[in-house]
Amino acid sequence: MNQPAQITGLLSNQLLGRIEQMQLVVSRRFTNRSRGEHLARGGGSSNEFRDYRDYSAGDDMRFVDWNIFARLQRPFVKLFHQEEQLHVVLLIDASSSMGFEEKDRRALELAAALGTMALRGGERVSVHVFHSAGRGASRLEPIRGRGKRRELFAFLENVTPGGETTVEQGVEALLRRHRGRGAMFVLSDFLTTGDLNRAFNMAFSAGLVPYGLQLLGPSELSPELSADVRLVDCENAETLDVTGTGELVRLYREHLQALLGHLDAFCRNRGGQFVSLDTALTAETVLTDVLRRRGWVR
Amino acid sequence: MSWPGFHAPSAAWLFALVVPLVLLYFLKLRRPTMKVPSLALWRVVLQDQRVNSPFQRFRRNLLLWLQLAILCLIVLAAMLPFFRGVGSSNRTVILIDRSASMGARDKLGGETRLALAKERARTLIDGLSPNQEVALIAFGRTARQLVPFTNAHRVLLRALDDLAVEEVEGDVVDALRMADAMARSAPFDRVVLLSDGNIPGRIDFDLPFELDYEKLPPAGANLGITGLRARRDGARGWSVFVRVQGTEGVDIPCELEVRRGDTTLFTEPVHISDQSGQRFVFPIAVEGSALLEFRLRHRGFDSMPADDRAYLALEPGRPLRVLVDRELSFFRHGLAVLPDLELDTAPRASTTYDLVLTAPGAETPLALTTLHAGGIPPDLTTLLTVETLQTGTETVVDWQRSSPLLEHVELSELLFGQRVRFAAGVRLQELESLRYEILAQGSSGPLIVAKEDGGLLHYHLLFDPLRSTLPYRVGFPILCRNLVDQALQRAGLLDKQAPRTGVLAPLPVPPNTEFTVVGPGGATTTVRSDSGGLLTGIATPQVGPLLVRGGGTELQVGASLLSLAETALRTTDQLQMNELSQKAVTRQVTTDRSLWMVLAALALGVLLVEWWVFQAKPGGHVRVA
Q1: Which of A264, A254, A161, A195 is nearest to B42 (CA)?
Q2: Is B345 in the A-facing interface, judged by CB distances under 8 Å?
Q3: pLDDT digits (tens, 9 = 90+) for B282-316
């Protein structure tokens, strides 16, 4: 019996089938300000009841609850959530550092999964991949609808890591071309010295809630050093001579733990979330266990 | 504080390895590289480490410093450093007292003094450095070299293990002489004396080396037999005198038992009231030869068992057998009037004589006592000459009035027709060095000398008695009486002294016969009597009865300690040597304290620290999803 052809090389058909059943849960920004005579462009088509308030002069008579008025002889106006269409932005770090221990592979797998869920939920999905500074970020223009997922997969399958673009540079490049509110999923190792705070502020100001997915390999989580070793940066070939002592490794862990705490705070303070993932975990485990437990998906 | 010394300072050249170590450290070209995704975090970590480290420069090359420390410690260990111990030296002679008192214990079931001495000696041997050597000498009545100078621990320890107490009186001078003799062939720095202190406080010995006297802890109370002799009492009877003495203030309830074979003859309670002890007299009649055993039966703890037994062989009386040369008729007449003598003028076969009076050139069988009337002994012919005086006479200038031979003998009016002279350049000390004792001194040289040789006593009248007035003087019969008394004494016919341990006095037996001697504990040796019918050189290191058997003859003798010095366990804290000699120092000698093991352990410790610093994984982990 012939096996069905793989839809994408990033995810198995079986996992893709499970992902189709999952839904992305993000904190949406509701913009009641856009409610009025003119529907917002791309606004939602269905309203969700939220509350009542007293009628005041000038209120739209169409929103007065006449049943209440009949019982209480006082006019009340119904208030509705106005659902704005969510723009899911997948920002993928494809610098050289992501080439370690399948971080890039895992990032693309997760991006494909998150994008699939967003398309399945009817959101707009755009993908930004930042390579070297010279090449700039490649971009998948916003797409929508389940039928566009092959386009998404094709784009992701063509991504190759290289260069030394930092996360903040990638965010800035994204914001230069991006329009619309939504959620920004940043898939990176976040091993950067730049001002991530500024970049996240800019993104938040632009209406993007930051969600950080940090991908770290086992050697980054628990480095094993011999006595004297020369560390070589894979992105810019810079070197650093260290004497690998237990104390040094301990300090490294402390700093890494502190970095994780900072990143988590960056995201939480802007309404988003942060998770650090070990690349030793499979994409299936991350999606069906880690992210589900953390409430990212359901 | 003293600086440590080094047994192998030549190993210091290994410090030169520091140069290649430093060069290799700094010049090593291929530092292992490790690609990492980003240096950003590592830079922050290093910066933090440097800021928080008090020894930044040091820590920058921590590995080098640790390697240098390990190298230095290993090189220092290879140089074999040591702290010099008290009395430590490169060559040491250890004198171990093995006399009877070293068998004493401090309590019931406690260790003997010899066991403690061996333990101390083991400690000294165990602490020997590679370039230090030790020689072992054990001494009882005589000294014996157990091991010559060596560093072989096994050999030294085996010799120590084989060392046992000899139930004899100790003589430290013999051991010192042996050490002195060793010093001539193998120079050494120091002598350590391990003893319980039962040695004379003043020792007539010129100490040519430094002596460390290490006194062992004292033993407990002791009571023992210190005197045993018998005097003839009638034809078959003996009066046996026994003295029991002990340590100062000893109060051990006990009884003195006298046994002959399995028969107990007497049992007397012992009460020691003062230092002189208690004296017992037992009248004992013997029909034949009998070996009497005197045993103290204690009813409490007695520290030394060696002196609790004593043995005395008694035999019925017999006439003194005397051989007088035919030419010495005046002596024969002088002796004939004395009772209980068997006088022969020619030697009879298979007869052992107790006293022999011989003239120059006559056949002289061996006897316990011999008088040589006239002539110069062969070993003095180069030292003395006899000159026959044509005119004038020689007289006695001085004589030893307390000598057993000359007691009550007046020699001042004697005239001699011969004069004995010292050869040119010969002095009196040369005679004394040949163990001759001058009994009567003429104007130019000795006239009567005596020598004890192998248990045989020789008197030499260096002048011809017939050319003197001696046979005509009143002193002559007295001299004969003294001579017979001396012979009776030595033959055990008048007075019998219990033989002491060490070497047995010569036994009169049939000549040229092989004898088997069965000692205490069944130890058997074979000895042969000489042509004179004397059995000599029987070693008796232990107290107990001996059975001498051979040629149809069977003798029972016994060896006893009989030493007040050993029984009283008197100890000396300070040894006094001759005035001009070096002083003996009373102190505990300690061995050199070797440091190489400490340094090696430190090197291992630094190595472990290095491993821990560079290899040990820190606890904890980074919390990720």
Answers
A1: A254
A2: no
A3: 998 888 888 999 999 998 899 999 999 999 998 87
The tokens describing B34, both together, are: 């490790």
Percent of chain B with pLDDT over 90: 42
**Closest Cα to residue B33, out of A244, A240, A230?**
A230
Q: Please tell me the distance from the alpha carbon of residue B97 to that of residue B344, in angstroms, as a whole number.
A: 48
Specify the amino acid at residue A1: M
Q: What is the 3-state secondary structure (H, E, C) of B164-196?
A: CCCCCCCCHHHHHHHHHHHHHHCCCCEEEEEEC
* Same domain flag for A199 and A272: yes
Distance from C-alpha of A1 to C-alpha of B323, rounded to nearest angstrom: 140
Nearest Cα of chain A lies from the Cα of B619 at a distance, in angstroms, of 8
* CA A251 vs CA A216, B50, B87, B316: distances in Å: 17, 11, 55, 106
A with B: how many residue pairs have Cβ under 8 Å apart?
Answer: 137
Owning domain of residue A51: 46-83
Q: Are residues A54 and A110 in the same domain?
A: no
Helix (H) or strand (E) holding B15: none
Query: Does the pLDDT at position B506 exceed 90?
Result: no
Give residue B619's pLDDT.
64
Average confidence (pLDDT) over A43-65: 77
- Residues in chain B closer than 8 A to A277 (CB atoms): 624-625
Chain A partners within 8 Å of B48 (Cβ): 251, 255
- Note whether B624 contacts A192, CB cutoff 8 Å: no
Do the Cβ atoms of A192 and B38 come within 8 Å? yes
Q: Is residue A298 part of a domain?
A: no
Residue B188 has a CB neighbour count (10 Å cut-off) of 19
Distance (Å) of CA B84 to CA B2, B8, B136, B537: 8, 14, 21, 46
Q: Categorize the per-residue pLDDT at B164 as very low, low, confident or very high, splitting at 50, 70 and 90.
A: very high
A187 and A66 assigned to the same domain: no
Domain CATH number, residue A138: 3.40.50.410
Closest by CA position to A7, among listed A147, A185, A160: A147
> Average of pLDDT values for B58-64?
70
Which pLDDT score is estimated for B464?
93
Phi and psi at residue A61, to the nearest 5°: -65, -20
Total Cβ atoms within 10 A of residue B398 = 12
- Measured between beta carbons, the chain A residues lying within 8 angstroms of B624 are 214, 216, 221, 260, 276-278
